[in-house]
Amino acid sequence: MREPAAAELRGLGVSPGAAAGPVEVMAPPPELPPPRPVADAAEEARLALRALEAVEAELEERALAAPTPEARDILQAQAAIAGDPMLAAGVRGRVEQGADAAHALHGAFDEQARLLLAAGGRFAERVADLADLSGRAVAAALGRPMPGVPSPGRPFVLVADDLSPADTAALDTAAVLALVTERGGPTGHTAILARSLGLPAVVGCRGILDAAASGGLAAVDGTGGAVRTPVTEAEAAEVNAAAARRAAEESAPAAPGRTADGRGVDLMVNIGSAADLDGVDLTGVAGVGLFRTEFLFLGRYEEPGLDEQAAAYAKAFAAAGDRTVVVRTLDAGADKPLPFLRLPDEPNPALGVRGLRVARERPDVLETQLAAIARAAAGTPARVAVMAPMVATPEEADGFVARARAHGLPAAGVMIEVPSAALRAARILREAQFLSIGTNDLSQYALAADRQHSGFPELLDPWQPAVLDLIARCAEAGGAAGKSVGVCGEAAADPLLAPVLAGLGVTRLSMSPRALPAVRAALLRFTFAECADLAERVLAADGPAEAREIARTRHNERGRS
């Protein structure tokens, strides 16, 4: 019997790697039953609140057993939502109005979800997390179990509408080969956790539930965002054999990043706190290319003080040893509003007060942070640098550099996330010591495509020629000035793209520690001249699919040579 032709679906590749295997579809949560009359409102409220307590306890237990720091932090945040007194008050109020426990829980979570949708940005992406918490609480109130990850007794590709943090964090990576979800975005918890677990993952893959309903085998490309199903057993074996070859190649001893002819490319890691360096092998790693300091501020109603900040930064500097640590100053606003800033609501927060622009409203926050970084840097062998997010003009860049120098921090650079900054990179580098390109936001602003929206993944693709043109312009400016230009967005973790970026003149790539071996191995396949030639060919492509295929073909040729 002839095998059916495989259909290729596309989504957002959010965790690199490839795998193929039989498909298993995650069952949805139990349906909400019809409303029922409430005889005893007090008892009904106790039933609903016990359900919330059960969900909170379960998530806290899972957080303690979490396999990665990212999973632990996310599960603890989910547990905090379930234990939120305001949520409990909303549940009680609905019971007092006559709702039964299940509908009171569902209504309270639904209200929170509507608020997040109205806020937009990353908040809108958290609606799926609230839906999961609602399902868990309703199931607990009804005395029903929540469906878990399938256990077919063999390795499989997991397909779902969306995956909750609780389910993703507990995945058995020996059984789950890859993840594919119908919904979700690049900064959702599924994406974050898949990367931390090292699982190939594609999110926002429209049509995957229908395609997977008939079973069969699927091949998942977590780097490029393609999912093919059904594939033959021979095709699946070929995909897995190629992945095994890459894994063997990547298992070579750690060493500094370089091309085949010895041209250096600094490989660095992204962190949110000192804890993210626990257990990380820093052999050959140039340092921390992105220290996201906003995690110290999130959820706070009072700004962390100078002493608290300095202590947190000092821990991270100590963990890095004598390596470079690039500290991004507070990246707040838009999808990361901070209560203590008390900024007014905005009609379009992604284009409003965010990143360095917060200092226009609250200059004291930036001054305190720079003072804390300087204090922590004074007592460490780490080579500390600072950079500002969301810089749009040379004037803004110059102002930030001057502020940093006033605090005794001479190594000051800027993030390139706005096309205007990329176009004026040469002028910015008159004062700034380095540039670091955030490809997620750069793609969003260059192509007018909300990075949280899964409806047009091709516009959020860092392989878009327009985005690569902007990166090339920055790298050219850096080369002319003799200054470093790095990439710290998700594109830095793409092993297919790494030689292209090196060929454009990018000198630093900063990523999740798990991505280091694949990127290191990819660079070693090419001489610098070959990287430059590959970059030229990719820049001439008409679109991201063609650009990626050019690179994939060259990588495959190098893999066979």
Description:
This protein has 561 residues and is an alpha/beta fold. It folds into four domains: 7-28 and 147-241, Phosphohistidine domain (Glucose Oxidase, domain 1, 3-Layer(bba) Sandwich); 41-142, Orthogonal Bundle (Enzyme I, Chain A, domain 2); 280-387, no CATH class; 391-561, Alpha-Beta Barrel (TIM Barrel). 45% of the residues lie in helices and 14% in strands. It has 22 helices and 16 strands. The strands form two sheets. The protein has an eight-stranded mixed sheet. Strand 10 (287-292), helix 11 and strand 11 form a beta-alpha-beta unit. Helix 2 (69-82) packs antiparallel against helix 8 (189-197) and helix 11 (306-320) crosses helix 13. The longest helix has 24 residues, at 41-64. The chain is globular and about 75 Å long. The protein starts with 6 loop residues before the first strand and ends with a helix.
Low-pLDDT segments: none
CATH topology of the largest domain: TIM Barrel
Q: Going across the major beta sheet, what is the strand order?
A: 1-8-7-3-4-5-6-2
Q: Give the termini distance in whole angstroms.
A: 37 Å
Query: Please, how many helices?
Result: 22
Counting DSSP E segments of at least 2 residues, the number of strands comes to: 16
The value of Rg in angstroms is 24 Å
Short description, anyone?
The protein is α/β, with parallel strands linked by helices. It is built from 22 helices and 16 strands. The longest helix has 24 residues, at 41-64.
Index terms:
single chain, 8-stranded parallel β-barrel, 22 helices, 8-stranded mixed beta sheet, 561 residues, Enzyme I, Chain A, domain 2, 14% strand, Glucose Oxidase, domain 1, alpha/beta
